[in-house]
Amino acid sequence: MSNMTTKTRWQALDSDLHRISRVENASVHVARPMLAPGIALAFIALAGLSAAMFFGQADGGLIVVAAAVFGAYMAVNIGANDVANNMGPAVGANALTMGGAIVIAALAESAGALLAGGDVVSTISKGIIDPASVQNSEVFIWAMMAALISSAMWVNLATWVGAPVSTTHSVVGGVMGAGIAAAGLSAVSWGTMSAIAASWVISPVLGGVIAAGFLALIKSKIQYQDDKIAAARRWVPILVAVMAAAFATYLSVKGLKRIVKIELEMALLIGLASGLLVWSVTVPWVRRKSEGLENRTKSVKTLFGLPLVISATFLSFAHGANDVANAVGPLAAIVHTAEFGDFVSKVAIPSWVMVIGAFGISFGLFLFGPKLIRMVGSQITKLNPMRAFCVALSAAITVIVASWLGLPVSSTHIAVGAVFGVGFYREWHSDRRWKQTNRQRPAEQRLAREEHQRRKLVRRSHFMTIVAAWVITVPAAAAMSAAIFVFLTAFI
What is the pLDDT of residues 432-490, one digit of tens each? Predict the structure, then answer.
């Protein structure tokens, strides 16, 4: 009897322990989604404490602390959303693992922001609103605060729904909305806004056309040749040299403004010299790498892996150098106005503000970046190293062409547009080849055509979601900013 009682007690204890373990497992699953937001909140709070150490006792110190908090929030959202455009194609093509992509992007973005980030930023986002139309410094501070909050909230919302959007356009919309609320419609430079609206179309179309053109070149000159390895030995060094020339020019024009100002003509010469140097190095590398490879397209794809990783790294560096300044512009404007009591069209970015931007991007990328990286890299269309290489090359060349033409473009729209361009070109090319090879009877051909139409190579749902997010980014951020400005000026 005693043994039965003991056994029953052990069974009860074992059952209780099993329940406890299930409770623990449930708590782990509940806590895991809260870990990333918790770390992000800790970083945001640390940014606020840092600002309090610098400005806590000064006039307007509380405003600067609040601005630093929202600036850190904005930087985290940039890391979660914008950086995916640079690393997504490399991950989607399996040239990089997700962990490797995040580490490389975080280092390159931070280095770009801290080493080559713009030391001067246009506080009214490239002339969106006229500073003379703003009544006083206090109104200007609240307008910039509203722009900062609204743009960060919009990028956060876009990340949540899985849409890569332009951070710069979000800031532009936020500044425009706050400017209208503060000084009316006449305060906005509608010519500048028209140019920005045109870039919604120009950026993705130009990026897509260039990416599709390079993919067509690769298919024609390498993939469909009888001796693919010999063709690759001839053309891969040329393509990598073009990539090197494009990135050298891109970094000279966009990424090194803080170190030295380089005109476009000189940047093109630097790009040409870089391209020739890289070509001379790549020819023997490709020859060694291609020895023993089978005469198959799959073998040729391996030759694009390393250039793709390098191109993604350069894209991240240039993005950190160029876009972080725009993102922390409202924060820099608030700091300057609170410290000196006046507002100007351009201000210097304090080092601690740039540090918040750089590290905020890294935190956002580590904590929330994988979602958008997967979206850009594998959920829009299927990428391999050749296609992803075309996307990266298109991004660099499109920015150079746009700079030469004086067109305002978004790096986000260019990169994602290039992914769309590659996907739609594959659809067109597949349809063309299908028509050439299918000679069934009319009834069979109709069924085959219906099946072919169902196998779209670009996911239409993601395409529509992303395009819709692009179209409404500026008006949505503007509406949110105007409402936040009215609230801040009325109740605070």
Answer: 776 666 655 555 555 455 544 555 677 777 788 888 888 888 899 999 999 999 998 88
**Collapsed DSSP state (helix, strand, coil) of residue 17:** helix
Contact 283, 367 (CB under 8 A): no
Q: How many CB atoms are closer than 10 A to CB 231?
A: 19
Is residue 120 helix, strand or coil?
A: strand
CB 129 within 8 A of CB 175: yes
Q: Are the C-beta atoms of residues 228 and 295 closer than 8 Å to each other?
A: yes
Dihedral of CA atoms 364, 368, 370, 376 in degrees, nearest 10, equals: -80
Contact (Cβ atoms closer than 8 angstroms) between residue 188 and residue 128:
yes
Distance separating alpha carbons of residues 174 and 169, to the nearest angstrom: 8
Q: Which residues pair with 338 in a beta bridge?
A: none
**76: how many CB neighbours lie within 10 A of its CB?**
33
What would you report as the CA-atom Rg of the chain, rounded to the nearest whole angstrom? 26
Separation of alpha carbons 28 and 491, rounded Å? 41
Structure tokens at 416: 């994602």
Closest by CA position to 400, among listed 253, 209, 206: 253
Establish how many alpha carbons lie within 13 A of residue 163's alpha carbon, considering only the half-sphere containing its beta carbon: 22
Contacts (Cβ under 8 Å, ≥6 apart) of 25: none
Tokens of 354: 């740039």
Q: Which residues contact 31 (CB under 8 A, 6 or more apart)?
A: none
pLDDT digits (tens, 9 = 90+) for 131-156: 667 767 888 888 889 999 999 999 99
Q: 402: which 2 tokens?
A: 């746009």
Comparing C-alpha atoms, which of 402, 411, 351, 405 is closest to residue 376? 411
Q: Which amino acid would we find at residue 137?
A: S
Q: Which two tokens stand for residue 422?
A: 């590659």
**What is the rounded distance in angstroms from the CA atom of residue 127 to the CA atom of residue 133?**
12
Tell me the CA distances in angstroms from 158 to 38, 151, 163, 379, 430, one per residue in order: 20, 11, 5, 16, 32
Cα angle: 291, vertex 295, 297; to 5 degrees: 110
Divide the 492 residues of the chain into consecutive groups of 10 and give the mean pLDDT of each group. Answer: 53 53 45 71 88 69 87 89 80 85 85 69 63 76 90 90 83 89 84 80 88 92 89 92 86 66 82 93 91 85 87 80 71 81 71 84 84 80 87 83 69 85 85 67 54 61 82 91 91 70
Q: Rounded to the nearest 5°, which phi and psi values hold at 164?
A: -75, 120
436 phi and psi, to 5 degrees?
Answer: -75, -30
CA distance linking residue 294 with residue 303, whole number of Å: 13
Structure-token pair, residue 42: 């800790």
